[in-house]
Amino acid sequence: MAEKNGVQASxxxxxxxxFAGDRGAERDLVTRLTTPxxxxxxxxxxxxxxxxxxxxxxxxxxxxRLRTIPLQNAENVEAFLEATVRxxxxxxxxxxxxxxxxxxxxxxxxxxxxxxxxxxxxxxSTLSQFVRDAVSSLRQKRDQQxxxxxxxxxxxxxxxxxxxxxxxxxxxxxxxxxxxxxxxLLLHARGNPE
Length: 194
Known about the structure:
By secondary structure, the chain is mostly helical. Helix content is 74%, strand content 2%. The chain has a two-stranded antiparallel ribbon with strand order 1-2.
């Protein structure tokens, strides 16, 4: 895709090919933009230790965009990339500012935590397996599925509601009851039935 009839493909041609699913066009565009992007990062005084990460992240953002939504003016690929770099830098500055503000406000209250001892780590691992076993021991398959997917697999509520064909209020009741049954099972397993 880099050349068509002896003429180098434009950024617009490459962008259109990427939207059409051409992985070769992606490689061509990345190859073409890597050197100018490195120069841009140097000119913008991005710290040297952050340049390669920002280069990769910027190119990933660009490719994701070109794969899913064509640019209104595909000739502006470089402008989009420059705006992406600027937005990523602003995001970095904001994260640093928030971290510095939190450290400034709570530095006296924060103490570094020591590494977990192997015994504590083992206990956490054992506890995790114990909870998973308890979830698997629930009598109702729906309870098992709901707790596993919602809490362990991070499936969001609207997706589970749609899959179970229930309203959000009904979902909350089902989840509450499943948690109560799990709690009773865990307490019974510990020898503390309520």
